[in-house]
């Protein structure tokens, strides 16, 4: 046995005792719950807060995207750092940046400061989320990967469920800046359970992890798998939809077209989070049995349909129904990170997850900018209004078309889980 293979075997042995550990997964999931709780608390008020600086829908979209721009740029470096250094320290560094950026956003005296705060938040998110994804991939065994990652996603979605309502209530009781300070406190608290996580060894040869030649070689190996690229593109479109439609168009449509307040917008987004949680958690175990591609493909098609129905909402009730259905079909995708992990070389998970996060996070960047711009140029002006106008149908149609394209792209991807299950029954 070569020295490199021997080291890899020892690393796998060290990490195997955490494989399938519910306590470890719950611990990691708890931190992610707290982060998403805080992030979701500001989501219903962020577009309106940005709009208060007297900017267009396009610039409102950029406030949402600026977070993702930094995260996208730093996802790959975060993956490399997690390969070389202690993952817990990297995650804690990310949490500190999230807390600091939230305070800065809450104190922002102008639009530029808010954008800078969001970019710092993106840096913190890149460090935490990419490293946490690698951490989870390392402790999730092949047989239960979907189950454990769905448990993680379920806890994540609990934060998305309660966050918008809490954020709306806090903004209504205090002011529109208050949810940012609550976010800072929550991410600070999240450091405590992170300290209790086990220390994992790195996959592959950590001593070579930061050498450019080795990095490029590993990246080429990961990207040489066409299915990895096809699945990651599908996830890119889901991320585009999440920030472009759910976090930008829906709050603006609810506030400007329907005249809803922060509490009502938070309630609508909470309903969507609840229905997503109801479907995504069982989909993990189901995808372990039937494969990952069918649920994800079904999600893309149905989401394209329901996205077209959102702008036909006329009040709180009809918008809540539309977003409830939207949330349920989003959950059909299951744990997309499990699909990418299936297609990744297991000794290069840090590289794979860094690339996956970089490509998919570009959807976070493109979504708000593209759909915010389309909402701007197609908006119906309202005399005396401080906003750019009523949001029309066109940006929702474009989002739907992108999802349909992703569906046809995904059909060409391999599904290792489905192949393995079929082989077991033949």
Q: Which helices and strands occur, and which strands form pairs?
A:
Layout: H1 3-16, H2 22-42, H3 46-51, H4 57-84, H5 87-107, H6 111-139, H7 145-173, H8 178-189, H9 191-195, H10 212-223, H11 226-257, H12 262-290, H13 293-309, H14 316-331, H15 336-342, H16 349-378, H17 394-410, H18 416-424
Helix pairs in contact: 2-7, 2-8, 4-6, 4-11, 4-16, 5-6, 5-8, 6-16, 7-12, 11-16, 11-17, 12-14, 13-14, 13-17, 16-17
Brief characterization of the structure:
The protein is mainly α and 426 residues long. The protein has helices at 3-16, 22-42, 46-51, 57-84, 87-107, 111-139, 145-173, 178-189, 191-195, 212-223, 226-257, 262-290, 293-309, 316-331, 336-342, 349-378, 394-410, 416-424.
Structure write-up:
The protein has helices at 3-16, 22-42, 46-51, 57-84, 87-107, 111-139, 145-173, 178-189, 191-195, 212-223, 226-257, 262-290, 293-309, 316-331, 336-342, 349-378, 394-410, 416-424. It is mainly α and 426 residues long. The protein has a single domain (15-424), classed as MFS general substrate transporter like domains (Growth Hormone, Chain: A). The longest helix is centred in the middle third of the chain and has 32 residues, at 226-257. The chain is globular and about 65 Å long. The two termini are 33 Å apart.
């Amino acid at each position: 046995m070569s020295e490199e293979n021997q080291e890899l075997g020892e690393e796998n042995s060290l990490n195997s005792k955490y494989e399938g550990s519910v306590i470890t997964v719950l611990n990691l999931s708890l931190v992610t719950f707290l982060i998403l709780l805080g992030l979701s608390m500001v989501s219903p008020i962020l577009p309106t807060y940005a709009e208060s600086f007297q900017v267009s829908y396009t610039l409102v979209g950029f406030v949402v995207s600026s977070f993702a721009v930094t995260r996208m740029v730093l996802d790959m470096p975060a993956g490399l750092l997690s390969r070389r250094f202690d993952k817990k320290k990297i995650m804690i560094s990310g949490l500190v940046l999230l807390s600091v950026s939230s305070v800065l956003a809450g104190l922002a005296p102008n639009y530029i400061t808010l954008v800078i705060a969001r970019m710092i938040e993106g840096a913190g998110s890149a460090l935490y989320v990419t490293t946490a994804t690698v951490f989870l991939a390392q402790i999730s065994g092949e047989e239960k990967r979907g189950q454990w990652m769905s448990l993680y996603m379920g806890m994540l979605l609990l934060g998305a469920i309660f966050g918008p309502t809490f954020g709306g209530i806090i903004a209504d009781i205090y002011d529109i800046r208050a949810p940012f300070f609550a976010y800072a406190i929550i991410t600070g608290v999240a450091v405590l359970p992170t300290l209790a996580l086990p220390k994992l060894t790195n996959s592959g040869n950590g001593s070579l992890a930061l050498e450019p030649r080795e990095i490029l070689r590993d990246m080429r190996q990961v990207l040489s798998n066409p299915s990895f690229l096809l699945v990651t593109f599908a996830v890119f479109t889901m991320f585009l939809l999440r920030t472009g439609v759910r976090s930008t168009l829906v709050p603006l449509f609810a506030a400007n077209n329907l005249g809803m307040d922060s509490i009502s917008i938070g309630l609508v987004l909470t309903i969507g989070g609840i229905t997503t949680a109801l479907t995504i958690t069982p989909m993990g175990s189901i995808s372990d049995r039937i494969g990952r591609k069918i649920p994800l493909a079904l999600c893309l098609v149905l989401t394209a349909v329901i996205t077209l129905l959102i702008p036909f909402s006329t009040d709180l009730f009809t918008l809540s129904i539309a977003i409830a259905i939207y949330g349920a079909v989003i959950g059909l995708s299951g744990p997309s990170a499990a699909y990418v992990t299936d297609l990744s070389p297991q000794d290069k998970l840090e590289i794979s997850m860094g690339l996956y996060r970089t490509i998919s996070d570009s959807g976070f960047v493109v979504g708000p900018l593209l759909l915010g711009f389309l909402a701007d140029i197609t908006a119906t002006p309202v005399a005396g209004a401080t906003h750019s106008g009523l949001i029309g149908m066109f940006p929702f149609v474009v989002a739907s078309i992108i999802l349909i394209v992703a569906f046809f792209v995904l059909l060409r991807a391999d599904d290792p889980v489905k192949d393995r299950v079929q082989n077991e029954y033949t």
